[in-house]
Amino acid sequence: MCCSYAFKRWRKTVNIGGINIGKVKTEQIKHLGKDLMTRFPGKFTTSFDENKRLVDGFTRGTTTRVRNKVAGYITRTNALAQAGSDDDSDLDESEMAE
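User: That's the sequence. What structure does it adopt?
Assistant: Structure tokens below.
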């Protein structure tokens, strides 16, 4: 019984109504990531390794696991923002061609 509880507690996906909806980041990770992105705008990219080094330099005393989670959150946020802006620019060019 102890092992099944530990598995349920540390599972990576959330199950709502029998549907797994993906990984969940804690509020601490999101808050730290957003704080770093606002304090250092333009420094972070879509490269996880580069973001990992930057997060390590900006935050002292965090564990490796927290550093990697924050860097992953920042990388994912930047990639989604970049993909969203690329889609918008494609729409503008197609509208101008007509």
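Residues 25-97 form a domain with the Diphtheria Toxin Repressor; domain 2 fold (CATH 1.10.60.20).
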